[in-house]
Amino acid sequence: MVNSALAYSNDEELSTEKGKKDGSYIIFTTRKIDVGTIYSPWKTTVVYEFRNTGDEPLVVQNITTDCGCTVAEYTRKPIKPGKKGIVTVTYDGQYTEVGYFHKTITVVTNSWRKAVERLYLEGTRGE
Predict the structure, then answer these.
(1) pLDDT string in tens for the chain (127-residue length)
(2) 38-50: string of b/e by CB count within 10 Å (b at 16+)?
(3) Residue 42 to residues 22, 30, 65: CA-CA distances in angstroms?
(4) How does DSSP assign 31-98, residue by residue?
């Protein structure tokens, strides 16, 4: 199962800083994805899309997750101004308990305004 977020949630933030163009600036389409209930094999993959709205290349420097059951992959090449990149997160609930889960993915970039972004993945692991 792959979920993808496509609606920009940071437009208000962007409009308040619209005139600022001194470096890279990361805007995620969404920071939180709820996958609902997942069943055997208790694995799901989601895609977080982002755009560099700055005027210099954006570099994702590091990504960490709060659990070994969650793995993140990301666009490793610098993202040119106006271009998009992705963070793909896979949750494997095979060895986790039945019930609600909430995972945090921390993204570190060279973005001028907010170098650390947090993404959230949540859902319920069924039996």
Answers:
(1) 455 444 334 443 443 445 456 799 999 999 999 999 999 888 999 999 999 999 999 999 999 999 999 999 999 999 999 999 999 999 999 988 999 999 999 999 999 888 999 999 999 999 8
(2) beeebebbbbbbb
(3) 43, 23, 18
(4) SEEEEEEE-TTTEEEEEEEEEE-SSS-B-EEEEEESSTTEEEEE--SPBPTT-EEEEEEEEE-TTS-S
- The model carries a pTM of 0.82
Nearest to 70 by CA among 93, 48, 40, 49: 93
C-beta neighbour count of 1 within 10 angstroms: 10
**In degrees, to the nearest 5, what angle opens at C-alpha 69 toward C-alphas 63 and 70?**
30
